[in-house]
Amino acid sequence: MGGLLGWSGLMLSLVSICSAQTQKSGPGHTGGPPDCSYIQTFSPHGASGVYVIQPEGFKYSFQAYCEMGGHGTWTVIQRRTGGAVAFEREWAAYKNGFGFLTWDHWLGLEKISAMTKDTSRRWKLRVDLWDFEGGSAYAEYEDFRVGDESTNYRLSVGRYSGTAGDAIRGAYHGIDQNGFGFSTIDRDNDGCDPCLFGDIAVGECTEYERGGWWYSKCGSASLNGDWHPKGDNVGWFSGLHWLTWKGPGPYSAKATRMMITPMLPYQKMF
Ligand SMILES: [Ca+2]
User: What is the pLDDT of residue 118?
Assistant: First the structure.
């Protein structure tokens, strides 16, 4: 998984924690590259790392981690590799983003929405999952889009492909997360009250599944819950699970990554 678990990345991220916040750009500034693949197309660097981007029409430029991998260039929107960065956070944190860009982080719903809500461009989401036994799997979705805050950052995904299964549409009938708004411990958009976990009924999916996600009664995908260490990673509703990959007893992944890229590459104009 490349530098995903690298200590050098950790140290880098610790010194860059403050600069991970959004930066205000000047009035009328139309911004720089709108995403990582744009950077790779017009000024190839070849190296994964932190770059400044500014989605079209978005008022701020901000830093994001660009994965310049063998299967394309991607803007990373989520990464989990351990339990040091807490993902049990409220709406404002999920809106604005948190963590360390070169390490575990959530880019922020406002930024993800700004990148994907423009209907003139189609986006692809890739979800990478790693287990504790040396295995991995992935899921890709065409037409990934996150609405703005007025929609509670509603999730839209199109055609699925991959090896992990389509957990967003659910391992079980009737719990499709596609089309649902985001929920956090202080915002309930999960579509259930009560929400059932076996014989146990709770008011919100986040009470058991933790973190923040596009929960829908509560669904089969949840990657922002609590990270669980090897040997204690099976059976927790709260873990990083993708039930079409490993289930039905929830298996909490060792590491996860979510990243996006335009479905059609940018064209160089000569
Ligand atoms: Ca609820």
Answer: 77
Q: What's the per-residue H, E or C state across 29-52?
A: CCCCCCCHHHHHHHCCCCCCEEEE
Neighbours of 214 (CB within 10 A): 25
Would the pTM count as exceeding 0.85? yes
Sequence-separated contacts (24+) of 89-97 with Cβ below 8 Å: 89/184, 89/185, 89/211, 89/212, 90/184, 90/185, 90/186, 90/187, 91/184, 91/186, 91/187, 91/212, 93/184, 94/182, 94/184, 94/212, 94/224, 95/149, 95/153, 96/22, 97/20
Residue 262 Cα to ligand 1 middle (Å): 33
Class of domain 7-262: alpha beta
- Which residues of the chain register pLDDT less than 70? 1-31, 173-174, 269-270
Q: Distance from the CA of 188 to the center of ligand 1, in angstroms?
A: 5
Residue 3: per-residue pLDDT: 43
- Residue type present at position 21: Q
Q: How many A from CA of 114 to the centre of ligand 1?
A: 27
Q: Which two tokens stand for residue 62?
A: 């901000």
